[in-house]
Amino acid sequence: MNETGRSGKARVAHQLETARHGSTLLDRKQHILADELERLELFAEHSRRRWEDLARVAATWLQRSAEMDGRDRIEAAAADDPVVVEVHWGGAMGVSYPENVTVQLPPERHPGGSSALSYAAQSHRDSLVAAAQCAAASRALLLVSTELTTTRLRQRAIENTWIPRLEAKLISIQGQLDQQELEESLRVRWAENNRSGADRARTADSPIPQLSGGSDG
Asked: For strand 95-104 and strand 84-92, is the pairing parallel, antiparallel, or unpaired?
């Protein structure tokens, strides 16, 4: 669409207002997501450390159980049913991400054996729950981080490209309107001057009426 004239100026001015409003909203979204990202970073780091600590404990007890009970007894203690993990989703500023998980562990089996086997089984169950929580926290961190990056790019595109382009277009249209008004003003003045000149010329060319003289004699 050719953006000229007063209607074009109104359209561009509206587009500029919309762009500035959008930039303001994106700036607000960016700050909210940045705060949320900071919280998720701390939570993800805490979840990772907790999982690693529990995994180390589980590995230690498994090693002890292997030495005391043997592989067959350890395999007999393994559950037959799978673990069920339910992800609970939340979100902020239009982006969805995992907020928490519910882990349904299968029933424990008690094949006997040493106390090390019992501790190994329980520590692995705890480690599994922590691993699911860590995975959810890591996924949430990735999703919010990606959305924050996208939001920043959009805001920069609006502020550095669209707003300057619309401002320049608005200035150009206003300059055209000013030029048109100036030209119109000059045409009106020229027409008025021509009319005044023509009136003066007609007045100068008009015959001077003769005054009638008195009777001779």
From this structure: antiparallel
Go through the chain and tell me how many residues it has: 217
E strand residue ranges, the chain: 84-92, 95-104
What 167-173 contacts at long range (C-beta under 8 Å, 24+ apart), as own/partner pairs, is 167/16, 169/3, 169/12, 170/9, 170/12, 170/13, 170/16, 173/3, 173/4, 173/5, 173/8, 173/9, 173/12
Which 8-state DSSP code applies to residue 113?
-
Classify 161 as helix, strand or coil.
helix
- Give the helix/strand (H/E) hosting 65: helix 5-68
pLDDT at site 80? 86
For residue range 78-108, what is the model confidence (pLDDT) as tens digits? 888 999 999 999 998 889 999 999 999 999 8
